[in-house]
Write a structure and sequence with these properties.
heterodimer; A: about 70 residues; alpha+beta; two-stranded antiparallel ribbon; B: about 400 residues; alpha/beta; Fumarate Reductase Iron-sulfur Protein, Chain B, domain 2; Rossmann fold; 3 domains; 22 helices; about 50% helix; globular; binds iron/sulfur cluster
Chain lengths: ~70, ~400
């Protein structure tokens, strides 16, 4: 994982020079990036509603100590 | 809005006697190396055919097989036709969804499929059933070469000008096969007091041509952009989501930033409803659900306006599935109609599955925002006997406004 990243609109991006050796960055404009964020949020929210919200909560501190 | 995500190295054609480029090989490894299979489970074709070769993972692996000399181009004849170009796999691929924004490197399956179909065709290798697709292409090219009056005959009696700051672009599919859709759109806009025009001679846009003869398609794209500009367009309204996806995802790639704003009709109508420019005078007392067109929901991330329009319809009871759950649906037509032409049985099964889901939510009517979905579902309903009516959302809006289409 890159130790140095760029922060853009609240999201992290790899420093472009790191993408010059093996794979090269291709044309991805801001709208395409926004769409990725939108799709990701839709997906994660749905996953949460489907799965994560049904997980049993962990022990509380009091329960652990009792 | 212009959504651009493409790879220049896809332009180098894959040929019989030449090695696959290093960039394309690495690109395919990027997908081959992943075993998540997020792309697979919601691929509407995989759900019916259960053949992994036809998933995003499969098409990248097949291309890689060519690169590694494990397969020859003629053997790939039918490998790339089993894709609807719906876009589910590329947006759900972790390379896109969880890493695309970070690396500026995403999975672009739809482009790869189009490229491989094109490259195979250029080498004289066509999938089974291509003749029918060629027929569609020839029909559309004949329209383009034909007289102006035929292309605008759908608008007879509507008295629409041939220029204006707001232009409605009507593709040939709508103009000839589902003319009730542009007619409804035009009547709604007129009733709402919108001044708009149409092109005297829109040029060919069909996806079947795009994935067969890119140069011809691009030439027509450039003419469309130039003609719309010359007509004074500041806003261009699209009434077919396939063309909408071409205008916002492909046209800027070949024509540069477009000199006008591109809007889908449901967004435009929804804004008119919100601005109280549309008055509903009749209820539509039906139980409805809505099918997100792949081209609108998955390719362009546009799903809000149709839901808001449905919520505003008087008397309508709606049970609409979330946009994300519709990533796994397609009507069976595909964004390029080549799939339906070459694989009618699979297309039918995909349509039946979608209609059954609509039936399961208790709907009498399946509302649509795409003319191709309407045609596909009408055929599927007739063949399957599933008792649910596919209706275009614009027809319902017009109905509630008291407009006859
Ligand atoms: S674009 Fe759609 S049909 Fe094609 S491989 Fe991806 S999910 Fe399947
Ligand atoms: S297309 Fe994406 S999700 Fe599917 S196997 Fe490949 S990398 Fe994984």
């Amino acid at each position: 994982m890159a130790e140095k990243v760029v922060k853009k609109d609240g999201y992290y991006e790899v420093e472009p020079w790191r993408m010059t050796e093996y794979l090269h960055q291709h044309t991805v404009n801001d709208e395409a990036i926004k769409k990725m964020h939108q799709d990701r949020m839709l997906y994660l929210t749905w996953m949460h509603e489907q799965e994560a919200c049904r997980c049993l909560p962990g022990y509380t501190k009091d329960e652990l100590e009792s | 809005m212009e959504i651009l995500s493409y790879k220049d190295f896809y332009e180098e054609p894959v040929k019989k006697d030449a090695p696959v480029s290093e960039e394309l090989t690495k690109d395919c490894y990027n997908v081959f190396a992943c075993r998540h299979k997020f792309c697979r489970e919601w691929c509407p074709d995989y759900v019916e055919e259960r053949n992994e070769s036809y998933t995003s993972y499969g098409v990248h692996t097949s291309t890689l097989a060519l690169a590694c000399g494990n397969a020859s181009l003629p053997e790939m004849k039918n490998e790339f036709i089993h894709c609807l170009e719906c876009g589910q796999c590329e947006l759900k691929c972790p390379n896109t969804m969880f890493g695309g924004d970070f690396y500026h490197y995403a999975t672009t399956t739809v482009d790869l499929v189009r490229k491989m179909r094109r490259d195979l065709h250029a080498q004289g290798i066509d999938y089974d059933g291509f003749d029918e697709v060629q027929q569609v292409i020839d029909e559309h090219l004949a329209h383009d070469a034909g007289p102006d009056e035929e292309l605008t005959s759908w608008a007879a009696g509507l008295d629409l000008p041939l220029a204006g700051e707001t232009m409605m672009f009507v593709d040939y599919y709508n103009a000839f096969q589902t003319r009730e859709v542009p007619i409804a759109a035009a009547k709604i806009l007129k009733a709402a007091g919108v001044e708009f025009g149409i092109l005297k001679h829109p040029h060919v846009t069909t996806g079947e041509l795009y994935e067969t003869d890119e140069d011809k398609w691009v030439e027509a794209a450039k003419k469309n952009v130039a003609d719309l500009k010359a007509a004074g367009a500041k806003t261009v309204i699209l009434v077919n989501p396939h063309e909408y996806s071409y205008f916002i995802k492909e046209y800027p790639r070949y024509c540069g930033t477009l000199p006008f704003e591109v809007v889908y009709i449901t967004d435009y109508v929804n804004d008119l409803i919100k601005a109280d420019k549309i008055a509903f005078v009749k209820p539509y007392n039906k139980n409805v659900t809505y099918h997100d067109p792949c081209s609108l929901n998955k390719l362009c991330g546009n799903y809000q306006a149709p839901r808001e329009i449905i919520a505003a319809l008087p008397g309508t009871h709606a049970d609409v599935e979330k946009p994300i759950l519709q990533w796994k649906y397609c009507c069976g037509n595909g964004v390029s109609g080549a799939f339906r032409k070459a694989l009618p049985d699979v297309a039918y099964k995909i349509g039946v599955r979608r209609l059954r889901h609509a039936n399961d939510v208790g709907a009498e009517v399946l509302l649509l925002a795409c003319p191709h979905c309407k045609d596909m579902f009408a055929e599927t309903k007739t063949k399957s006997g599933i008792n649910i009516e596919p209706v275009h959302i614009l027809e319902v809006v017009a109905y509630c406004m008291g407009i006859e289409v």
